[in-house]
Input
Amino acid sequence: MTAQDSATARTAIAVSTPGSSHTGPLDTPGSAHTGPPDSPGSARSDHRGDVRQRGDARTGTLLAALGVTAFSLTFPATAWGLEGFGPWSLVAVRSVLAALVAGGCLLALRVPLPGRRHWTGLAVVAAGVVLGFPLLTTLALETATTSHAAVVVGLLPLTTALLSAARTGARPSRTFWAAAFAGAAAVIAFTVQQSGGRLTGADAYLFGALLVCAAGYTEGGRLARVMPGWQVIGWALVLCLPLSVPGALVALSYEPVHLTAHSVTGLLWVAAGSQFLGLVVWYRGMAAIGVPKASQLQLAQPLLTLVWSVLLLGEHLTPAAPLTAAAVLVCIALTQRARG
Output
């Protein structure tokens, strides 16, 4: 047997040279030298990872904030839509239109069907975000003002954080919870003061909407970690088509329709802006920074809604608005810095 065809594996020889502390295997051409964990290369890698992580967090926060801005227009747009559509017609038609947009995107990009294990979660998103919240809040806005309905959004971040902690096992810090409760209390106090401290018959609809929407947000945020956020809401909208199409036909046959610039604009916004585009960026933001932190950005939503109510609906704000805005912004800053 020759040396060339020997099956004996060649081993590295430890070499120690004068003036050198190197006692490991002698590096050969083509071999990769890996430095110790605390080498400069490793430090640079960790630094790049930290920078990338901070960049992802900033992007996620920006996307979630864009979603909140889109949602803040939902109540004023719904009020506009109710000028020309009945409540059932408005909800059913907005769902159909949003599903057509989402379904068109899914088909154009040839997105495969989600795995069987995801359909239960998508059904929760559909029931809570696509059908439940729009229907219950629209019924409430027939008798309640947008200022009064904002109490739902004021409680939504806290409810979403609670459901998320129960669903995913997350354990945000005490600072996070303290800031979340303080922000929710400030928003509730402001919105109740705005409505004169009176509770109306619409409150049953509003609190029901609060629960189903928080469940939909929590499940949607979880799914957005395993599939793109726009696909989460897209498939949820498509899943509702067997209900929304017949519902729209029946509702339109019973409820009168008066097409005006306001009603058409309101319908288009709640369908494309609130129901699809807003949820796309919202779920992407939640996937990047987590459901609890993203949900706390919604503390600013009632205040934005009140601003739109003044500009678009002619409602009046009290002097407490800027004070509440400042308190809410402080709470948002604390929740975003707190570990969770």
Remarks:
- Residues 186 and 286 are 23 Å apart (CA to CA).
- Residues 1-37 have pLDDT under 50 and may be disordered.
- The two ends are 66 Å apart (CA to CA).
